[in-house]
## 1
Amino acid sequence: MFYGYLHPQVTCTKHIFEKYVAFQYQCTNTIEEQILEDVSVVMDLIEGEDCFAQIASVELKSMPLGTSGSTFVAFQRDEVHLFFFASLVTFTICHVLAERIQFRQIRLHPQVHFQRS
């Protein structure tokens, strides 16, 4: 059974290049008896929306218990000093029970704030 307080561990690393910013979401499945599928991140600009355009995203197809993987979102950018993103981590949970498998789609809402130094 899924309980609301169970979730995978997710960390975000930003990679900043002259014309691009890539966000790497490192995910680890820590949920007992569940496989996470179609893990992806949807990002929404809160501040700096005139300076960014999303150009790519890469999802994780499957993440069994105890495994890690990365999903990515990349943006082309103009010069900007301050930007804020809201992130939505989505995945489908496969409950692996002795006799059946159940599916439930889950959404996590971490907020990502970055300030260029």
## 2
Amino acid sequence: MKLVISAVCSIVLCAIPALAQSKAAKDAGMSDQEFLNFAAQTDMVEANLGQLAETVSDSQPVKDYAQMLVTDHTGDYKQLYNLAVQANLNLPHAIDAEHNKAIGPFYKLKGKAFDHRYIQEMIAGHTKAIEIYKKEAQDAQNATVRAYAAQAVATLEKHLDGAKALEKPMP
């Protein structure tokens, strides 16, 4: 019995530094691969929801905003693809299950109900993305990834401002 307890204690003591290292790595931010995955999923989701908005929204300003997102995020995905090749990283080619689940409810909405949820999601999503991109612009391991993240912030801020403007009542 003492041998079993000693073995368990030894394993636990050996595992503590590994657990601390993984927590430190997590606190340090994303890896470049994780960031590219995030950015690609964001681009695909924004383009997908933008296409949906163009068909189910009753508001021309929302449709115009959605078209801007489709154009910008489709172009950004192409830029990300080139960046991934250059940095020898992988890029997802389809929306993953987690993001598909998140956008699923949008397909049940139309008109003003869609517009309200879409605008709120665009504000929340772009706010989160700006925070992540700014951090990656400082912390990315690859200089090209850092430069991409830094230059993309302006576009994301434009999208956030556009969503906030749609939130305000029309005159």
## 3
Amino acid sequence: MTSRATWMTVLTGLVLVGCAGDSLEAPKVRPSRSDQAAQGKQAAQGKQAAPGKQDSKSFQVVMETTQGTVVIEVIPEWAPLGAARFRELVEDGFFDGCRFFRVVPNFVVQFGINGDPAVHSKWDKKISDDPVTQSNKRGTLTFATSGPNSRTSQLFISLKDNSGSLDGQGFSPFGRVVSGMEAVDKITAEYGERPQQQLIEQQGNVYLEREFPNLDHVKTAVVAATDGGDKADKAEKKN
């Protein structure tokens, strides 16, 4: 008789083996049946969301969380499409209130489903993949996927060097934590992988607050002002 563990492996799809011998599932977006059908149709028609404005220079995003401040350096040359989508999401206020709904110790912290289903639906636009030019080392920020060319809004921060397991699967980092990794390490793993992505998308934070009240979350995420921008603001105020 097939064991329950074997069936779980089949059902969850791609399974990674951690350095300590743990079975760990790659950070993935779990599509519904309708999403899968739409994704197949888009792939057949060659349709992808138009890329947003692509920066050539690095920029920083300051993310205030319930565990402290996290500063992320985004490096567009690593993964230009991913960096552009991340900036669009931040500037739209998408991540404000987002829960860290999947935390696997010594692997990843995953987030990026908006607490308002209507807002999340607005950003359910897939972008094409970027080539993997950097490794998924500790502190890197990368989009989760449900397959090729399926990145939308879900992200993960690597809690350790995951290059051996994730690089070859097409996970392309576009940024890294440059300050506040200690806050990331403190994000609660109380609920592990129990929150269901489809229910979050359908019910938003109402579901998470009811079933998983102790989840940590992003309070705000903003693009940090550059030195040039600060000088321009000061000059404008003087005039």
